[in-house]
Amino acid sequence: MVHIRVILLEPIYGGNIGAVARVMMNFGFRDLVLVNPPPIDDEARAFASNAIALLESARICERLEDATLDSNLLVGTTSKAGLTENRHVRMPVFSPKELKRKLEGKKGIVSLIFGRESSGLRVDELSRCDLIAVIPASAEYPVMNLSHAVAIFLYELQDLRPGSYPLAGRLDLDLLYEHIHEFLHKIPYPPHKREKTSLMIRRILGRAELTGREVQTLRGILKKAEIAIEGGERSKG
Fold first, then answer.
1. Which of 130, 134, 169, 190 has the fewest other C-beta atoms within 10 Å?
2. What is the pTM assigned to this prediction?
3. Which domain holds residue 228?
């Protein structure tokens, strides 16, 4: 079945951390990871209410990479959806309801990543994610309180239908994305398009929810293509 993890990246206010612990308890979730948080103070405990044990059991990491090592799918949350098809960092986006439909019947650890209260997730952090999710709030003021945003996602995901479709591991996926990036440097592909194309492919594959076997198949195809390219270059020389 899908295991939901909530990751707060560099949260600023202890009260918000405590409030997130409380809404996690409300909807039956227990896996909270804090990346570079402030000290867990009395305000955080007060906002946590009866979820103090969950708050104090939260795993603390220094880097986002450490928080996601065993995650199968990374979902970056943002209040700013991309406006055009060329803005692959924030497109395509999924609402909490759409995210639930994508996760139905899957098996693995899904990390919901929430950014700083002041500025959210940076472009480089969103670029690491497999999927991007946005709460369809008012266009006049789409930025929500951190704990409110977490609550909306967890409300939608609390009754996910369990399944046995195994999502690929983080290491396998990262190796595939790195391999694609390297491959674009080995073929006559326009240098100024490589980064955008790498991100586009990451978004495509993120939506595909690959299994480990599918990842290995794709990497095998890339290796065969690299061998063919190297063979053709040698024959020309």
1. 190
2. 0.91
3. 170-236
169 — phi, psi (to 5°)? Answer: -75, 160
Per the listing, tokens 């290491």 go with 171
Burial of 213-225, coded b for 16+ CB within 10 Å and e otherwise, reads: eebeebbeebeee
Domains held by the chain: number:
2
**Residue 160 corresponds to which amino acid?**
L
Q: How far apart are CA 159 and CA 101, in angstroms?
A: 11
Residue 27's CATH number: 3.40.1280.10
DSSP letter (8 states) at residue 161: P
**CA-to-CA distance for 192 and 189, rounded, in angstroms?**
9
Rounded to whole angstroms, the Cα distance separating 225 from 221 reads 6
Residues 161 and 177 placed together within one structural domain of the fold: no
* pLDDT tens, position by position, 159-172: 998 888 999 999 99
Q: Which residues contact 89 (CB under 8 A, 6 or more apart)?
A: 82, 123, 126, 127, 132, 199
Q: pLDDT tens digit string along 73-90? A: 999 999 876 544 445 565
